[in-house]
Amino acid sequence: MTNRFKLSSIAIALALGCQTTYAIADEQATKKHQGEVEKIVVTGTFSGKSVAKEEASFAISSFSVDDIKKLAPKSTADLFKAVPGIWAESSGGVSGANVFVRGFPGGGDAPFLTVQLQGAPIFPPPTLSFLENSTLFRLDATVEFMEALRGGPNPVLSNGQPGLTTNFLLKEGSEDSEGLIKYSTSDYGLQRIDGVFSGELADDLYFMVGGYIKSSPGVRDAGFNAEEGKQFTINLTKQLDNGKINFYTRQTDDHGVWYLPSPLQVNTVDNEYTQIGTKNRQATIQYGADNHSETFDFGKGRGWDGSVSGGSVDLSLPGNWQLVDRFIYTKGDADTYGLVPNGDAVTLTSVANNGSNAWGAVTGDEYSGDTLVQQIGRWVVKKQIEAFTNDFALTKTFDKGTFTAGFYHSTFEAKDWWALGNQAYHVIESGGEMLTGIDCNDNGTFVFNEDGSPSLDDNGEQEWFDGCGWNYDINSIGDGETQALYAALSYNVSKELTLDIGLRSENHQIEYTVDEGLNGKISKSVSYDETELAWTVGANWMFTKKQGLFARISNGSKMPFFDDFRDNYGAYQSGEDLIKEVTQYELGYKMASDNYELYATTFFNEVKGDTFVRQPGAPAEILTNEAYGIEIDFNYYNDNGFSVNLNSTIQETEITESPANQGNEAQRQPSWQVRVTPSYDLEFDDGMYATIYGTLSAVGDRYANNENTVTLDGYEKIDLGIIFNLTDEVQMQFAVNNLTDEDALTEGDPRDSLSSNGRYILPRTIDFSVSYQF
Known about the structure:
Number of helices: 5
Distance between the termini: 16 Å
CATH architecture: Beta Barrel
Number of domains: 1
Helix content: under 10%
CATH superfamily: TonB-dependent receptor, beta-barrel domain
CATH topology: Maltoporin, Chain A
Low-confidence stretches: 1-37, 444-448
Number of strands: 49
Strand content: over 45%
Radius of gyration: 26 Å
Largest sheet: 22 strands, antiparallel, barrel
């Protein structure tokens, strides 16, 4: 039997009794030691060369293509749930996740996450408002594996991310031509075709092409094809006598509805509720000083329409020198169209003009006074981004270790146009329509003084009043540049003990202007230039061949990007540098044997100078946060086809400095979480085989806000699946997500923590696919 894999967090595995070869960096990992599984990682090494996982002096998890298949993630961020130390909220849909790392503070998005492709960051700013890195990357059959590095040498490498760096590597071609085509469907109407093909173009020149096209009404039925996407990837590799050259491009156009918090106090609302529908996907809003009107399609949701292209040069040079240069160029649109709840549900009688009823703006139907309604904001965010990054490193290998010196350079740009707010009362039902017969729904109005003269704002423009709530409109342009010199030394004190040290000096420049109000006047202007030093020191002691300890201390920074200046403009003007300083301590134990492996990492970190903004335009809370805990990644597998993975995190967080919340726990993050994933292989007499697998996820209570006044209850979730191999070429997969249809919450209302709104985890779904491999 061939191509059987265990479900565990490994990037490369040689299954018991068979041999499978993966391309890792410039090497082919083909080691097998009497049934022992060999794990190889490439992320986190200063030289970029692969090392055995148990010999790494940092905490890293890896996921092969078969691991990803069994996890069946609904989005890229959904995959991050399997990484110890990470709390990922992927309930917002295909884009727009919230990812938290080891108790680091945050109110949403993913400020301490970098997503790499082929070892280079897709977009240097980890988070901008309405854009986090996972939005820019879509999983498909062209991905070979993913690695997730927490803490460790992160502050010195790549874009200096102190938190989590995830690195996706693409499949490469070989001398043998091979391919796969897969059809997927689901109980929510998904139609998807994936394909990948690879082979040899000429001597030592290999190719891989692949992608997908898909369409569905969405996990929560919107009544129309709310999730649509396509992607195409080309990866070319030229093998040289002393290394290789790689080029790739990835073209993506994929979007889906932005799922938002639901009114929890309404008994007809459950985990299948969504604000969007055919009666409200098109809406006309007013924005700017002249109250211009425009109609938008809010069914577009959130997504990415752009390209990511790049490559690398990896050469072994005379004198034990190695040259590695990675480059990447990203350009496209990451727009957001959302129906955002504003406040609690109310009865129609409390807002109707006549105090009793109102009418549907689309259907004309009359709604009685006891109808429950809610303000829904029609938010529009148009975001154009562009970035180019180059990371060059030279490594010298000595008898006792290595020395690496490198230069990192990136330029990045974001052009934003926002029209936020635009509230109007809608009927509370999935796709509920807007109503007429309510003043603020029907018309906004200019504001006049008592004598009848126009009331002017601070800019001399006549004030506009929207009776249903606030508006926040901006037009901004931001340009940034980061240059960093870094160096690292690894020294083998003995065969068992290795020490390493890394330093990074980073210069960070930002030019940013904002027109708040869309009145053609610049209200905020930034010219920023700061240099910061990051460092890491680590030790690795392998007291047996497959068992060891590591210890590491690091200090790094999250540099400010465009939104940090907009939200903290007063602090910037008063001379604050807005740099978030991150100090981390780690102690890890690792052990690998013939049929089990254990990786346990304790951590303590402190983040100073973090800022939290409840919603754009609101004042910022500046705080210091501490956290400590332990991450456990345990895998067991035997010759009878049984395997199990245990992934667990226990942590304590505390806000140690804050104007009002000192002593509280960090919002949104559970004090414990655990995932248990068993898998069992079944063989049949005719040569067919099947793999039955499942995952039990359990998480503890969390607070929805820094004030710790709103508690989100813990929950358990069960996923099940079976992969059935009819032949060596034909495979079917059946997967059930959230088997018991648990209606737990991932968050409250981040814009109004006192409201009775919350976002559910995704409801039960059933997915089926059939693939043919040739």
